[in-house]
Amino acid sequence: MIAHKREPVLSVRGLSKMYGKGCPSCQTLTGPEFNNNVCPVCSSILALHDISFDLYEGEILGIVGESGSGKSSLVQCLYFDQDATSGEVYLAHYNEGKDNVLNIPASKKRYLRNHLMGMVYQNPVLGLKLNISSGGNIAEKLLAADLYIYEEIRERGKKLLEKTEIPMYYMDEIPKKLSGGMQQRVQIAKALANNPPLLLLDEVTTGLDVSVQARVLDLIKALQQELQISMIVVSHDLGVIRLLTNRTLVLKNGRLVEVGLTDQIMEDPQHAYSQLLVHSML
Amino acid sequence: MLKVENLSKEFTMHIRGGKKIVTLSDISFQVRKGEFLGITGPSGIGKSSLLKCIYRTYLPSGGNIWYLSGEGEMVNLATVDDHKILELRRSEIGYVAQFLHVIPRVSALEVVSSALITQGVEPKAREERAKELFRRLGIPASLWEMYPSSFSGGEKQRLNIIRGLISKPRLLLLDEPTASLDPVSKREVISLIQELKKEGTTMIGVFHDYETLMKLADTQLDINLKKCKEVCV
Ligand SMILES: Nc1ncnc2c1ncn2[C@@H]1O[C@H](COP(=O)(O)OP(=O)(O)OP(=O)(O)O)[C@@H](O)[C@H]1O
Ligand SMILES: Nc1ncnc2c1ncn2[C@@H]1O[C@H](COP(=O)(O)OP(=O)(O)OP(=O)(O)O)[C@@H](O)[C@H]1O
Ligand SMILES: [Mg+2]
Ligand SMILES: [Mg+2]
Ligand SMILES: [Zn+2]
Predict the structure, then answer these.
(1) What is the pLDDT of residues B82-103, one digit of tens each?
(2) To test ligand 1's pocket by mutation, which of A17, A42, A46, A69 has the most ligand atoms within 8 angstroms of CB?
(3) By CB count within 10 A, which of A75, A221, B44, B167 is most buried?
């Protein structure tokens, strides 16, 4: 039996992200009660406020919420694309989870990104260099993860394309010439290049054809079952969340309104907003 | 092995002005290891809700659900954290829903065999076991690679049952597992359940059909008028 450790791979405590200077009223005058994340006093955006959760090994956590609720900001803070304003983040694979990685030096953060995490962006432009070959994009991530031998890089690149069901002749093709679905696959291959224990997926299937979506979802599901990677899946599509995730966080105006087992969130949502979200999708 | 104490469940419908629906109130019963508890009661009384509370698809509003796990740990399924519930679902608590929640775009074979992945069963062995059960319940080979969304009601239900049984859970929750089956598959499902019971699986099953209930259940819980009484069959 696969042992699922009872310690979190990722622990997030009191994470907040403010765009703007902020003032004492930001916290008290924004949130679900005000249906707003913009402070009426100083106009700062409180994209995330006081978010806490744990992600366990092999678990897939869904993040849902309306547009602007803070989903992308959350994964981007975890991937260090954005600097969190405050809070604590612990990764079991980094110094046994003892350090708040929000406070470690930039070089160490780069190390974490390159060795312990993979990210797939909603917009391939953010995740890929569109004018470098697909193989080159993957190689870049491998180089960053300290793999320097050409043959090995080429070999691992091939394996990744295979795994993500990308025809081999695309290896030397630039992503610009590929379809949206193929670009997402190259992003996934790149994100998996360093065998990360944690994979972040931001709206991977949004904007794709339904049939292409299906294949990308199948791929993610298969990879998860095979590799048992812990994942965070951001999506506004509850079907995707139901298909892929074990647990779900519901965000609204930068606040965490509910967290629970995915089937419980779908069938017995507790918070008024979660009920609205689920019922509007039925 | 399972002891339910004063379980209650009410739904607060915030989107309908905070209206409350009381579905279960003050339900208590226990199930011993290896026992089959049959649950009966009129439609809408809360039978499915009771199973969903035990599986934690529904969050109980009050009471306790004490479960003695395979590792000898006493766990309150009503309140324990989600991670523990997921762990138990992976390794020892199974559930066959009244209606199959079809996972889109996953083949029948995968739907069923994937239930064995977390138990570390090899892919070949997983498929073999799945195919064996398909044959027993008369799912034709032509359907194995198909998506279940296109299956008939009875085929879906059989698939659902196979998925729930294949991993041989320690505690199995069955919600009307034979409701839309033809007599032949029904007999086969009943004998599968009986085999599993012989191997020691503890079960709680909801049945409309008294005959099936009599064949399977050791004890019976009748939920009626929001009260419940325990009768021995
Ligand atoms: N770089 C930025 N500068 C200023 N404000 C930003 C920035 N990025 C995001 N925001 C604001 O932060 C809030 C949260 O944005 P975020 O992108 O996290 O939302 P989201 O939940 O991912 O939405 P969507 O579903 O539309 O992708 C929004 O109000 C957004 O306008
Ligand atoms: N998720 C839910 N939200 C709101 N009300 C619910 C929900 N689930 C069940 N109920 C209500 O609780 C009551 C009991 O439903 P349940 O499905 O448990 O009945 P049942 O005894 O299984 O009925 P049947 O024999 O018809 O399957 C019903 O009135 C139902 O409308
Ligand atoms: Mg976003
Ligand atoms: Mg029912
Ligand atoms: Zn302010």
Answers:
(1) 999 999 998 899 999 877 766 6
(2) A69
(3) A75
Ligand 1 proximity of A72 Cβ (cutoff 6 Å): yes
Q: What is the ipTM score, two decimals?
A: 0.89
Long-range contacts of B144-152 (CB under 8 A, 24+ apart): B144/B107, B144/B108, B144/B109, B145/B107, B145/B108, B145/B109, B146/B107, B146/B108, B147/B102, B147/B104, B147/B105, B147/B106, B147/B107, B147/B108, B148/B100, B148/B102, B148/B103, B148/B106, B148/B108, B148/B111, B149/B102, B149/B104, B151/B108
Mean pLDDT, range A103-130, rounded to an integer: 92
Chain B residue with minimal CA distance to A210? B105
The confidence score (pLDDT) of residue A105 equals 95
Mean pLDDT along residues A81-98: 95
Are the Cβ atoms of B57 and A270 closer than 8 angstroms?
no
Q: pLDDT > 70: what percent of chain B? A: 94
Query: Smallest CA–CA separation between A202 and chain B, in Å?
Result: 21
Residue nearest to atom 8 of ligand 2 (CA): B49
Which atom of ligand 2 lies at the shortest distance from residue B9's CA?
Answer: 12
Instruction: Flag whether residue B22 sits within 8 Å of chain A, measured between CB atoms.
Output: no
Residue B129 belongs to domain spanning: 2-232
Of A17, A14, A33, nearest to A88 by C-alpha is: A14
Q: Which amino acid is at A92?
A: A
User: Is any atom of ligand 1 closer than 6 Å to the C-beta of A20?
Assistant: no
Into how many domains does chain B fold?
1
Residue B105: pLDDT above 70?
Answer: no
Mean per-residue pLDDT, A257-269: 96
**Which domains, and CATH codes, for chain A?**
1-109+198-207+230-282 (3.40.50.300), 117-195 (no CATH)
Q: Nearest by CB to A272, which of B15, B91, B117? A: B15
Is the pLDDT reported for residue A38 higher than 50? yes
CATH of the domain at B103: 3.40.50.300
pLDDT at B103: 65
Structure tokens at A155: 């070999």
pTM, two decimals, is 0.91
- Tell whether B16 lies on the interface with A, counting CB pairs under 8 A: no
